[in-house]
Specification:
The chain is an alpha+beta fold and 293 residues long. It is built from nine helices and eight strands. Strands 4-3-2-1-5 form a five-stranded antiparallel sheet. Strands 6-8-7 form a three-stranded antiparallel sheet, with helices on one face. The termini are far apart.
Length: 293
Amino acid sequence: MEDVLEFINEAENLNITEETVSKFMSDLSTGAMHLGVRVLLVILFFIIGTQLIKLVRTIIRRSMQRARAELGAIQFVDSFVKTSLYVILVLLLASSCGVDAASIVALLGSAGVAIGLAVQGSLSNLAGGVLILMLKPFKVGDYIIESHTGKEGFVKEIHIFYTKLLNYENHTIILPNGSLANNSLVNVTAQECRRMDITVAISYKADLKKAKEILTWVLEKDETVLKDKEHIVFVSQLGSSSVDLGVRCWFKQADFWPGKWRITENCKLALDEAGIEIPFNQLDVHMDTKHDQ
């Protein structure tokens, strides 16, 4: 009872009246309502902003497609525009919520060194993406081999920070643009044509001239071998168990792998039909039957 009286006395001392409490509750409900409306507006503006960003990206992509820009350049620009516009959208929404944009910029500027150290890898990848776009060491659809990691595959997408490859096993390989720009790579499909070299071994007892004629005939009858380019059969080396013949010809890029597999198989079948042996590794062992008495 004494505690209740003490609370009433303190309330009277602070001039807390029913009108004051009512005004406080009214202000609280009004503030909560304003906060709720502001949150809803932020969500609404974010949805509208994302739709506008999609519209801008679509317009840019279609414009570049009409200008016949490379697919890699279109993908890179699209990725850059998307990232930039979302950053601007977030800053605008933060400013509309009462956050001073100038304060944000000043804070980012003061923390520039720390941010630069934290994202130096990303900045390197961004710079690498710009170099790839400008110098064009490869484009979407090319088959490349990255020398540092040995990763290889067809280029599927070139983004602002990374490039996607697809290899023959249908695996998606993601490589940072910084690595692609700073390391050597092999663009296998940059040229229209590609040379094929295979080695066919024959026995030392086989007729060498006949074997060369048969393998040359295999190249001549294949329709996808480019006849206006060098297609020859030659002795590449004298091995320990065989005479190694080099079979060389040229294909268009699209015909290379099917052509190589077909030529390899046809060489084996043609030599078998002619009775020319393709030997396996052999080792002659001589045993001394004499024993010391």
